[in-house]
Amino acid sequence: MSSSDLTNSYAAPDRAVPNIGLWPMLRLGVFNMGLGIMSLLTLGVLNRVMIDELRVPALVTAGAIAVHQFMAPARVWIGQMSDAKPLFGYHRSGYIWLGIVSMAVTAFIAVQIVWQIGARVEASGWGSELYPWVGLLAFVFALYGLALSATSTPFTALLVDVSDDETQPKLVGISWGMLMVGIVSGVAITVIVLSSLGDTPTLDQLRSSINRLFIIAPAIVCGLAILSTYGIEKKYSRLQQRNRQRDEQITFRDAIKILTASRQTGLFFLFLLVLCLSLFMQDAVLEPYGGQIFAMKIADTTKLNAYFGMGTLFGIVGTGFWLSPRLGKKRTIKLGCLWAAFCLTLLICVGATRNPALLMAAVGLFGLASGVLTTGSILLMLDLTVAEVAGTFIGAWGLAQAIARGTSTVLGGGLLSLGKGMMETLAGAPVPEDQLLPAYGLVFGTQAVGMIVSIAIVNRVNIREFQTSAKSAIATALESDMD
CB under 8 Å to 65, separation ≥6 — which residues? Predict the structure, then answer.
């Protein structure tokens, strides 16, 4: 079968499927808003509590939480399951609902394990006897990662099922923007629930407030997920019309072969890995940075996510409607990398001031750079995608991002621990928490260097070369697989 056969192999429609309108698009975007809230709870609140309040080593904390990102390869299998085997009568919606409820349950279980770790650290300090509990926490986060894959992969497939060439960019843009809105909403929920905590809460007070937060917020997320997707698949899905063009035969190994078939796709894949590592390394350390260096409360450090989210949202909108059309995709990315490197340097500098307002401003500016890079990278990705296997390319990009984000979380915590250890070795004594600015500077400085490396890689990406060689290589890979 040739690539032209693939293009023209749509099944005859069994019914007239209406085009999805703005209101259903906004409804679907609400689901991503829920994922933004859950992301804040795990990477923001829980991460901060473990490192700052419970005194769990940053590398151990980051490593346990990051396990959920390394479950990303399951997305390929789960996507194929949702293609072939309906759940609760739906190809996508049933998996979405089961996955989001599983996320809520496993997140609450993870919090209970964290309290067991915290109680033992408070009683006898950190020791090797705690590693079985850390292993259990990592296992629960592995289940959380499977649940996340089970809900997010079918949801992304649903976006493809209900859209066409005209509506897909709008739908993806709205969903991505709503993800940032979810992070901001999560901040509001967290601030309200944790507002009763004082400057030095006891472990019991902390447990009560955090438990309440991890009941209320996930319950809201589950409700949003069901309301945002109910009825959408039944009315707007074009899955039956596209049966002959589904990608059931494409395995994870095939996806890797396709991505590396062209030198340009390999370069872009490398660019995404380096960029995501450099962009998200601060996830594991930003809130502890606010707590230890700026003496901010938990509710206040959570607001850092709101500033980052709002900056990212403005960056996405401004880049899509104004910046990229004027500069082009590659220049937009390079500008975003330079701006991000500047903001990361600024984060180090404001640490010397101990001024929380300046920290929030720097985080907002870094969020703006993140929005520019996010939009520029997605637009360039679309240019480096062949329509016949767009699902494979976009799925592999999501896999690369998940792996990079998991690695960046571990790397951020590891660099912080390394910097702290180097400082204590040089000082010959434990270093007070409010004097750990150089350790945090090691994390932010490494990110800035990564941004410069990203520019060097994207300079080598040639869209025209890809368009003349990659399509033939991908068609050959597919034909070989089908034979």
Answer: 42, 43, 46, 47, 141, 284, 409
Across residues 109-115, what is the average pLDDT?
A: 90
**Start-to-end Cα distance in the chain:** 8
211-232 core/surface letters (b: 16 or more CB in 10 A; e: else):
eebbeebbebbbebbbebbeeb
Buried b (16+ CB within 10 A) or exposed e, 440-459: bbbbbbbbbebbebbbebbe
Environment class of residue 342 by beta-carbon count within 10 Å: exposed (0-12), middle (13-18) or buried (19+)?
middle
Structure tokens at 89: 């009568």
Spatial separation of the C-alpha atoms in residues 422 and 166, rounded to whole Å: 55
Beta-carbon-side half-sphere exposure of residue 72 (alpha carbons within 13 Å): 16
Token pair for residue 303? 């607001």
Tell me if 20-236 shares its fold with 249-483: yes
Topology adopted by domain 20-236: Growth Hormone; Chain: A; (1.20.1250)
Of 204, 172, 217, the residue nearest 44 (C-alpha):
217
Mean pLDDT of 460-469: 75
422's tokens: 């180097």
| Residues 157, 141: Cα–Cα separation, whole Å | 24
Contact 414, 290 (CB under 8 A): no
pLDDT surpassing 60 at residue 470: no
For the ranges 66-80, 305-319, 328-342, the maximum mean pLDDT occurs at 328-342
- State residue 9 phi and psi, 5-degree precision: -100, 30
Q: How confident is the model at residue 99 (pLDDT cuts 50, 70, 90)?
A: very high
**CATH code that applies to domain 249-483:** 1.20.1250.20
Domain boundaries, the chain: 20-236, 249-483
Gap between the Cα atoms of 65 and 190, Å rounded: 19
Mean per-residue pLDDT, 419-431: 85
Q: Which residue has the higher pLDDT, 25 or 169?
A: 25
Q: Report the chain's C-alpha Rg in angstroms.
A: 23
pLDDT of 162 reads 81
Q: What mean pLDDT is predicted for residues 66-77? A: 76
